[in-house]
Amino acid sequence: MNSPHAATRVIAILVAAFLAPSGIAAPPERTLPVDPVELVAGREVPGKPELTIERDGFAYQFATPETKAAFEKDPTKYEVADGGACGRMGPLSGLGDARRYAVHEGRIFLFASDGCRAGFLKEPAKYIETEDEKIFGSNEQVERGRALLDKAVAWAGGAERLKGLKTLRATAERKEKHGENDYTITNETALAFPDRAYQRESWNDSWFSTTCAPEGAAMASTRGEERISDSRARAFRRAMARWPIVILKAHADGAPKADCPGLIVIADGDGKIGETPVEYVKVWLNGAASRLAIETTTGRPMQLSYRGRDGTTSVGDSVRTFSAYATVDGITMPTAYGVSFNGKDLPAAASKIDAFEINPALPAGLFKVPQQ
Q1: How confident is the model at residue 1 (pLDDT cuts 50, 70, 90)?
Q2: Nearest 5°: phi and psi at 89?
Q3: Top-tier CATH class for 139-358
Q4: Please, what's the b/e burial string for 201-215 (b: 16 or more CB within 10 A of its CB; e: otherwise)?
Q5: Hey, is 302 helix, strand or coil?
Q6: Within 13 A of 192's CA, how many CA atoms are on the CB side?
């Protein structure tokens, strides 16, 4: 299902502003002006250009050879969080400015604007996105959870059809007016199972995209293309792991696989959505924990809930309630949902698919990722 779009115009602007073509030396906005080791320790000490390390598109300058060596020994402890993405907008937004930084709980965050920095510092926990912890349950919960997904797989077309699903492409289009400007916004998501994904959003002639493959991930726009950090790639994989068809495909295929951290499934009680009886199942896939509501009689997925961003800049409790379904070549999947965020309806985050294709021939090079 296409990503929620309430915040995507802001994200598109950030991506366009901070995405530079690959192969260009780090400009000032990509160069942390203070020693990151000292900064994590609570001290702002200017770095020296002659003591510089480049990592994931950012230049780190150090005050002494000793702090440079400390960084080299454990770079993940000192590098900017979320690969340098704006700390308020999240790991899949555009990059922040390395000259606009803040430290929170030993992590260096960057920001796209002074407003983003001020908002983050006011309530950091509201904006920090993390991988979800794995879920655990009793043997009975595991068995019941797998039975519920078996029922959902049968509803979606059956295990054999899902096992035969190699590629999927979904598209949507909408029109919006912002000020005096009319926009045609198109979205495309392409998946090549089990481990390749591509999303692109266009606003008239402007566009931005994210690509993920086993060899890495990249973001691109009209200004160029470059690799993104592993942490941002994992955030994109988490977003893809919340598509119901991806969860059901992983279950039908019998994950875990070498290229998949594994699908964990446990039953989580029952209830009603409106007057419809449902059973809940928690799933964990590629770092993403979600809770599916499965219609008791049919196996139809009715809701998916998780903690994260859903058409907002902040992190919260999101509930997607599916409102439309379609069948193509024997495979059925949700094609629209509304969103409740932190207990309140969020109409701007609603999403839909106009059409999807099963096993289309995807363009050569669609999932190509530039070299490091």
Answers
A1: low
A2: -85, -20
A3: mainly beta
A4: bbbeeebbbbbbbee
A5: strand
A6: 15
Coil/strand/helix, residue 357: strand
Rounded Cα–Cα distance for residues 95 and 287 (Å)? 22
- For residue 292, give every residue at least 6 positions away whose Cβ sits within 8 Å of its Cβ, in sequence order, or none: 148, 152, 244, 247, 280, 281, 282, 283, 301, 303, 304
pLDDT at residue 199, as a whole number: 97
Measured distance CA(180)–CA(203) in Å, rounded:
15
Give the C-alpha separation, 191 to 246, whole Å.
9
pTM: 0.89
pLDDT band at 260 (very low <50, low <70, confident <90, very high): very low
Domain ranges for the chain, please list them: 8-126, 139-358
The reported pLDDT for the residue numbered 26 is 80
d(CA 288, CA 58): 27
**Token pair in block for residue 354:** 């106009």
Task: Give me the amino acid identity at 204.
Answer: N
Q: Which residues pair with 142 in a beta bridge?
A: none
Q: What does the pLDDT look like over 190-206, one tens digit per residue?
A: 999 999 999 999 999 99
16-47 pLDDT tens trace: 444 443 344 689 999 999 999 999 999 999 99
DSSP structure string for 164-187: T--EEEEEEEEEEEETTEEEEEEE
Q: Is 235 exposed, middle or buried (0-12, 13-18, 19+ CB in 10 A)?
A: buried
User: Is the pLDDT confidence value at 73 over 50?
Assistant: yes
**Using alpha carbons only, how large is the chain's radius of gyration in Å?**
21
- For residue 295, which of 281, 277, 268 has the smallest C-alpha distance? 277
State the average pLDDT over residues 259-265.
72
Cβ within 8 Å of residue 153, ≥6 positions away: 159, 162, 248, 251, 252, 299
Q: Is residue 98 helix, strand or coil?
A: strand
Nearest to 53 by CA among 43, 42, 44, 37: 37
